[in-house]
User: Fold Acetylornithine aminotransferase from Vibrio palustris.
Amino acid sequence: MTTEMKVDRSVFDDVMVPCYSPMEFVPVEGKGSRVWDQEGKEYIDFAGGIAVSCLGHCHPAMVEALTEQSKKLWHLSNVMTNEPALRLASKLVEHTFAEKVFFANSGAEANEAALKLARRYAADVYGAEKTEILAFVQGFHGRTFFTVTVGGQTSYSDGFGPKPADVTHIPYNDIDALKAHLSDNTCAVMMEPLQGEGGIVSPDPEFVQQVRQLCDEHNALLIFDEVQTGNGRTGDLYAYQGLGVTPDILSTAKSLGAGFPIGAMLTTTAIASHFKVGVHGSTYGGNPLGCAVANAALDIITQPETLAGIKEREVLFKAGLERLNQKYHIFSDIRGKGLLVGAELNEAWQGRARDILVAAGKHGLMLLVAGANVVRLTPSLVIPEQDIEEGLARLDKAIATLV
Assistant:
């Protein structure tokens, strides 16, 4: 019998690469929207693993799907396919604009595939000079060198040497800048249909329409990064469905697997045809375990009562944050859609989002930030109302210690 090594937070500093700064407590168990640490302290989870744990922790359907598949088949190479991957791809096609699916392991890899496909499509159809990728300031698309370059936050992309070329960034929601930069040399526009890491910024309806129209006029592909907004997060299965604009390529990950790593790129048959055999691939992408879990998650997320419940919970969260704001006068704006909610700190509280996150942790609440000035909430899509109320009460106590 093997005795497990005893570990605590201090071990992180001894053995882990210091690119993270984790909280002092170490979670060891979760059920629904509640988590317990090594000391047995309970937390309410308003973070959801950064919009990943869309059905909470250890949802029975997820546990059953993983357990059953683990007894059958774990991994195959992409020399062959597997039943869970075929079922999941069929469901994604059924519920979206897409006709073809490529599976990856993460959002960054799904976005990498999307960008490579856009470049390949443009080169094949229009010629080698059509290479420009237009993206947006404060956007976020992953941590590979290509995706972090397309993301519009230089703090993530600077310091690694020469970047991939022909990437232009313009302000989000700026129609004049869009018209000035989008040209016949643009092969693709990549955008989040609601900026997440950039501060929970929604697109103006007219702006989204203009993006689609200008892409059509200049034969550029429109890529929607729905890694954070997808799989019910905004109250629609995918955010584009609530905007009245359909992209050419869509990336999804995070909550697709409800906690199990999986990503996907969705597109049309015509565009997908330019990824011929050997052009792109993934060792683990579409593995049976991940696809089995994602199948179970998607079955729950696509239920009408699940999607309706997300919009009901949005109202509860925003009303609760507004009550806190009336009490403490801390937020300048409360925004977002569905259960991707941001509370922007006012001038008196600039730079203190992490202070609130840490204080919340001490009071048994797990939060997120989106930059230095926005508190971000991305809880389970099925979080019980009593957990919402209790979590907001704990946030009240946490803010009180900072006033």
About this structure: The longest strand covers residues 331-337. The chain is about 40% helix and 15% strand. The mean pLDDT is 96. The domain at 9-58+304-400 is CATH 3.90.1150.10 (Aspartate Aminotransferase, domain 1).
